[in-house]
Description:
Blueprint: H1 2-13, E1 26-27, H2 33-45, E2 55-59, E3 69-72, E4 80-83, H3 87-91, H4 95-109, H5 155-163
Parallel strand pairs: 1-2, 2-4
Antiparallel strand pairs: 3-4
Helix pairs in contact: 2-4
Amino acid sequence: MRHYLFLILFLLTGCHSDPQPEPIQYSVPTEVEPYIQSFRKEAKKRNSQVSTDNLIVTFGSAVSEDICGECLLDNGKTPRITLNSDAFCWQQASQQARECLVFHELGHCLLKRAHKTDKYPNGAYVSLMNPNDVAIYAACLYPIGGDECNKRPRRDYYIDELFDANTPTPVWGK
Ligand SMILES: [Zn+2]
């Protein structure tokens, strides 16, 4: 039990000894701002009290090549999201895919959600918080899967689940 407690305390305090919390700050690239506004709108619709006032989003190379975004949560510091601006992750991604990515990172950074890899029997991910396919309610770039390709009608469910992990299974997941 002691070891666990130690581990938890260590994780919470990280390796920083500086007790000074960072002031509240908001810095989001113009290109990303519409998705933050959309997040606020969806939060409000669901009566979520989440605040986006303390947030830094940057495009950066801190993200490794094979991931599109990351959230850095450090005790007392402003949550930081770094997005990969490459063609696949951002430049050529659809608006829907961009929203999926930004919402996934806000899920980590503001809603404190962890990854969730569960799938429904039909193979669809249960959550936008899955680490493998973030563009989960975007239409595909190359519609080779017919109707299966357009996941847009699933958007409401995935955003419900983002704000409430206990959202019941949707009809298409059964
Ligand atoms: Zn993630």
